[in-house]
Write a structure and sequence with these properties.
Length: 133
């Protein structure tokens, strides 16, 4: 993160410290949501709805043609029932933790990253591709 800050310092407002940059970057990365259209956004208040896998959500975020976002129920929500949106349908178990700081035990998508040192494992063929970081 420090390298990104240093590389973009000239584009930031005068007086922006690394601590302010880090706070803003973490705020955006942990509060941003993904709409059904795939657009990323910060939705004041909408980000307070809790996450559920797509099959369990009872509300969704709709962004209209002028960029306004609304929280819309996808079914009848009972009084006292928790409002649930899917933060990102493509997000896997580890993404949930990395982006939002919790483990979604009901996640339908699981993945793992395996790093291979090809110099030490010459017997591997080119059919195996390295993980993208």
């Amino acid at each position: 993160m420090k390298e990104t800050f240093d590389a973009n310092r000239s584009r930031l407002p005068t007086g922006t410290t690394f601590e302010k940059y880090k706070w803003c970057r973490l705020m955006v990365s942990t509060r941003a949501l993904v709409a059904e259209s795939g657009a990323h956004f910060l939705g004041c208040g909408i980000d307070l709805a809790n996450h559920a896998v797509a099959s369990k959500m009872n509300a969704t975020v709709v962004i209209d043609e002028i960029g306004s976002c609304r929280l819309v129920s996808t079914r009848q929500i009972a009084s006292g029932e928790e409002v649930l949106i899917c933060y990102d349908a493509e997000m896997d178990f580890l993404d949930t933790f990395e982006r939002y700081g919790f483990l979604d035990l009901k996640s339908d998508i699981h993945s793992v990253t395996i790093k291979i040192d090809y110099d030490k494992h010459e017997h591997l063929t080119e059919e195996v591709s390295p993980a993208i970081e």
